[in-house]
Amino acid sequence: MTKGYGQMSITVRRALRTALASCLGVVLAAAALQGPAAAAPRDAGPPAEDPFYKPPVPLPPGRSGDVIRSRPAVFTVDPFGKAPFEGVRSWQVLYRSENVHGAPIAVSGIVLVPKRPWTGGGERPLVSYAVGTRGLGDACAPSYTLTQGLDYEALMIIDALNKGWAVAVTDMEGLGTPGGHTYEVGRSQGKAVLNMARAARRLPAAGLGGSPVAIWGYSQGGTSAGWAAQLAGPYAPDLPVRGVFAGGVPADLRAVADGLDGSLFVALMFMAAVGFDSAYPGLNLEGYLNDAGRALLRDAREMCLTSVDGASTLLTTAFRRIGDYTTTNPLDDPKWRRALDANRLGGTAPKAPVLQTHAVHDQIIPFGQAETLRRTWCAKGANVTWKTYEFAEHATGMVWSHPDAMRFITDRFAGKPVRGNCPA
């Protein structure tokens, strides 16, 4: 059996202070370990081959957050033997959510609950954990990778489990389930995070019916967490959201695109274009592409960053520009700008307290647009605690923010008041 809570907690603390555990910092190392694709599970195979991930058509009647189906799963940090992580029960779930147009969709995810009884006050807390960038292929779905011992955020999730909290992780729209992954479409991601929390609370075997909720996310997960924070009040008033951590937030994708164009990480901008094309079919991404762009689009649809193909895509697209792959720049088209602006954070103030963090030297997600989000939320009356990391870039920003996020969420579950540091 894999090491349990006591020993693993020490390992987690040390690893989080020394490893560059981010969606990009681990790409080359993970590719070397994985080869072209993650190893298939012994039973059902990856999501594309697993009937569990295929929703019924039409979807059964129900509410957003209702569980369509569930099954026991094995959470592991062992990529070779896949020994279960000791002391945790887990279930893969298929649940109802909504797309950006308000239409019901099925989304997959995983629910993790410590076996030991909760000894704190009230009901066992639940963290709806929004993952960072994985890729666009179904094999990248965290409900799958967390059962394969190959998930780069597993240690952070274990740290939350070691606190006795339950953790629910959504795959988001189209990652695992059929259809394109709506990468960085915040309104879809935010709903998926909230409905994942609802699904975990409605899963009878998990025993989380009365659980208070926190939301957690960094990078792409920061977008998801920020949108979940904004939507929680009007969209999910039934959820008792106590606090939100949103780190390295891509709040304004037009500003992010400007920063990524011609950079080492321009592939992330291309992925977002595919994500928006999946969410808004009228954008017609392919109509803007040249031959090189169409080839990239074809290859990217099933790509996971933590694979040989993903690492190769990052390297071969590095320092390229939009014009290298298009005949016309879609960002010059008003319909593309409207779609991006419709998913820009800051329109409403979150009701729950928010810890927002950012690395000063973030080379992927511009610092300025995150600072603008903080000022915008503050001006609307949000309770925001803003923390920056002077000697960090995007990957180390994830690591340095983790202990601060753990303390912040711990205090919110304990009912401690917090006064943010918004400018007077």
From TrEMBL:
Signal peptide: 1-39
Protein keywords: Signal
Record has Oxidoreductase as a keyword: no
InterPro entries in alphabetical order: AB_hydrolase_fold, Lipase_secreted
GO terms under biological process: lipid catabolic process
GO molecular function: triacylglycerol lipase activity
Organism the protein comes from: Actinomadura hallensis
UniProt xrefs under Pfam families: LIP (PF03583)
UniProt keyword Signal present: yes
Compositionally biased spans, kind Low complexity: 38-47
Region described as Disordered: spans on this chain: 38-61
Protein name: Secretory lipase
